[in-house]
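Supplementary Methods S3. Input chains for the assembly prediction are listed below.
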Amino acid sequence: DADVTQTPRNRITKTGKRIMLECSQTKGHDRMYWYRQDPGLGLRLIYYSFDVKDINKGEISDGYSVSRQAQAKFSLSLESAIPNQTALYFCATGDSGANVLTFGAGSRLTVL
Amino acid sequence: AQSVTQPDIHITVSEGASLELRCNYSYGATPYLFWYVQSPGQGLQLLLKYFSGDTLVQGIKGFEAEFKRSQSSFNLRKPSVHWSDAAEYFCAVGARAAGNKLTFGGGTRVLVKP
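Predicted structure tokens for the full assembly:
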């Protein structure tokens, strides 16, 4: 099994729908991150969490919310999806004692 | 605020030729620097990292990168490219003081000609 699992891997939805992307990890890391990838822009940080009770906004958090249900689970929600949220979303984990992030395989979201 | 610039959006290289990908960063303190690779349809895989010490770092798949503080650069190189190196490459900067949050460059897509 992958260290960082994202579901769904692909999703097509309509404008105004609520969408949840889920992430789970088996690495035992305390830190988890959600990034968004757009062509030419690289990856941009949406939200990050240092532990279950610690949630922080990244550089592009508007229109998104997150929930850290457990150390191993970190979900990203789009309350009312819009077309410019069409992107590839990555979850990542990191250990506070190290400085390397481990990424999931990505969730491709298309908002029509 | 930290930032990363990858000046080349696309690079085409012949198989067997050398490859160099440029990365320039802006960061107020000593940065942690990373190169990740994303193969088509895949997630990001760490190629190599620089935290401190020797400024020439070796990574996986025959890649290396050199940290040049005076030029704020961390360029990635490979002496002889294989067709399987066709992918998108991302340079990133981070720091423990910043909670290991990474700031990524826009990426460079590498195409390999037979």
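The CA atoms of residues 10 and 109 of chain B lie 5 Å apart. The first strand of chain B starts at residue 3 and ends at 5.
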